[in-house]
Structure formats: structure tokens, C-alpha cells
## 1
Amino acid sequence: MERIDCPVCNGALFKHLFEKQQEPFVSCAGCGLVLINPRPSLTQVAGTYDSGYSQGYIKKAAKKIARCRRWVRRAARQQGPGGRWLDVGCSAGFVVAAAEEIGFEAFGVELEPSAVEYGRRELGLANLAVGTLETQAYPASFFDIISMYDVIEHVADLNRTVAELARVLKPTGIIEIRTPDVGHWSTPKDLATWKEVKPSEHLYYFSQATLCRLFARHGLHLQRRRLMFKSALNCFFSRGG
């Protein structure tokens, strides 16, 4: 277990909330971010994403691809057609495939090798990479749209990742983030009962305020938020706000 300072405000004071599967869930006294702290080892976190996890996703391919097409069309309407798209945590590449269908040069990066292999083999996606965003060395100011759908809550080093998002985003580009919303009206007051609480998997639980504060540290500001009926944040960030 590793104790960390708050990645949003650098605070070191936390309020204990509850334990689940022997992992302590706390809130930061400075900004309110909810997180696991001390958190499990990064090896343990990485172990929650194996080929079995990916296969469960791939089995629903038809449904997932249809949903990804809706997401891609919605973001493309906001930003305009064409350009380069990056999906971070792309799994089998369904978002990448949907972006290519409407004319983007699309890229994806994913930790789990078998998911990437599926995307390359079955979907013909040449621009899928195994690893983290930070290890890909994409050129600066390269992407028009970057998506992270249900990914940022898993990221070990939030500030390193968001700094890299900012580096590879074009000055006129947008980043779309979707993540569980700890401040949503439907999120239970007793967070221990919330279905999104997943030890060793979801490391952080954002509100709009904590997500925006994290991105603002790296010069990225909320452009708009899409209201969600379920307990999720869907936020678009840009350099100019």
C-alpha cells in the first residue's frame, strides 16, 4: 500500500470514509476528492485489467460499437469533421474504428495486449498501441480530439497523464472525459453502497469541482458539461475554456 498526497490540491490531510475489501476510502480535507489512500500497489491495480476483462468487453462488440458511434458523432459535431483523434484506454478499439468511419485519422492506446490484438486483427486498426499514454511519445499539439471514456478514475499518476494530454492536444482541440460523478444527485450518500466503488480498480472519485481543478493545473479548462441521468460526469476541456 502506498500513501499519496492529494493529486488535485497536494493536500496531506484526509477524512476516513469507509473500508471495502480492506482498502481505505478517504476524502481530501482540502478539495474533497474521494480516493483510495493508502492505495494498492500499481502491480495490483494493473492486475485488474487482464485478457478476461477485455474478453468480457469484446463479447458485447455489436452493442459497444453502436454506442461508440454515437459518442464519436456527438464530439465530432462540436469540434468539426476530420483531423486526428486519440482514444486513451481504447480497449479493443471501438471508438477508434468509429472515428475512422467518419474521416478521422484515429489512434488508440491501451494497457491490455489482447484487446489491442483484437482491434488490429478484427477491426483492421493500424494505429493501436500497447502501454500508457506517456510512453507513446506522440508529437506535441498533434490531436484535435482526445477521448477518455471511463478511464481517468483508473490512472495511477493523474498529473503526469493530464500534463501529457495537454502536451499532445492541439491549441484548438478538445478533450472529452467521462467518469463516475461522486456529486451526482443519484449517487448514494453512503458511498460504500455505490456501484462505482471498486477497490483496486477505481482509484479516484471526482466531482465536477475536483475534475476541473485537476485539469486547470495543466492549463485545461471546462468548455462544457453534458448533463447525465446516471451518476457520471461528461466534461469537455480545452485550452481556452
## 2
Amino acid sequence: MLKVIAIGDVHADWRNLSAALKAAYAMDANGHPTQPVLDGRYRVILMGDLVHPKRIEGYELLTGRTDYNWRDPEHLKSASRAQVRELYKLKDYVDQSDGNVQVILGNHDDAALEHKFLLGTALGVIHAEFDPTKGGVPLPEDLQAWFRTFVRYVRLNGIHFAHAGPTPGMMYFDDFFYGDPDAKRWWTDKPHLVRDAGHTFGVYGHTVMEDGIYIDSTNQFAMIDALEKRQYLELLLRDDESFDYRIEQF
């Protein structure tokens, strides 16, 4: 039996990420993988978007500034530096896991690498801290190389884990992705896409779940971008490919 701990979009919420991993007994008090992770009995899957706080309050917490302004290069440097420090800690954790912690590439991770799109939110938060054309500081080269190893999906016993959704077009963050409303709305407008794609069950992030993790038991998928609600999804996968899942509150 394999336990899978799936954690939704991080968005530089290192405190809740650490708390979730420790609550799942996937990280010890010193920030290292626990023995069940090292043994391969536990698998951790992070659904991507490691970078870019969702809210201005997140940037203020990271930088210690109550007046965070994405147009100020000094503020951008502070935001970049704070995230880089925590990314190195997470990389160490992943590197120590013997391949049993996987990170799925999110569109914000991709944007921090490629700088093709300047992402923001409806609340006016602009994510420019890693974009040198906007006064930001690029990710260090070793972290860029690490980001490039992130997978676009994981499939275990017919269960599909991806950042945004079940189709190949939702795993590549180009003009089509950003122009297609399905990337955000498929789970309500076209929930049959998981079955259509041949998946037994799907686990996805990308779209904020204001009320916590959403599970569609009819169409067999979970939307788990709910780390700020202090939730993650736990799945138990059996050798006969049957499985159970539950929402964990920490």
C-alpha cells in the first residue's frame, strides 16, 4: 500500500507547507524527509506554483514591509531573496527524499523561469520579483535548473496529478493556456474531461478553492488549491489499483 500526500499550490506559503508536511509525517522537526518517505511508503506530490504569494499580505510578510510595491526594485529584491532562501530549503528536502517527493510544474513556476508572461491577480498583486525586465532578480541558475526538472504530471494507478487540469493543453503554459477559460472553469463547465482523458481519478490545483478542497465524486476528481485553508489530500493506493482518499485538516 502506498500513501500519497498531495498538497495544493504553495505560493510561497512556506509556513503552511511545512505544517502540512509535518502533520502528514512526511517531514521531521528538522525539515528532513521521514523514514516512510525515504522507504517509499509515502509519496509526496506538490502541485506546483511554489513561488509568488497570492496576496499582498503574503509579500508584506515575506519582505517585512507594510508598503510593498511591485514597482520598487528594492521591494522586488526583498521578495526574491526571501523566496530563494526558502526554495533552497525545499530543494534540500526534495533532494533527500530519494525520488519520493515530486514537484509538478505550475504556471507561476514557469513564469518565474521564462518571463514570457507577467502574472497578477484581480486584487492588483503583480508578480515581478523574478523578472529582470521589470526590476526583479532572476532565480539563481541552480534553482532554474531545478525548476526545469519539475514534471508536468504524475500518474499512479490510473490517478492523474497535474497542476491545472486533465488535458495536455492544460499542462503547457502558453498563449492558448492563458486565453482558454477551460484552464480555470473546466471543473465546473466540463467535469467529464477527467473521464474523457482516460483517468480513473484526477487531482489538480491552479484554481483557488475558497471553501476548501473540492471533490467531485461523480466525475472522480479533486481540486486541492487550498493550502491557505490548511488542507491537503491523502490517498491510499492498494496493489490491486483500488484506492481511498480523504481531506486532511491540519
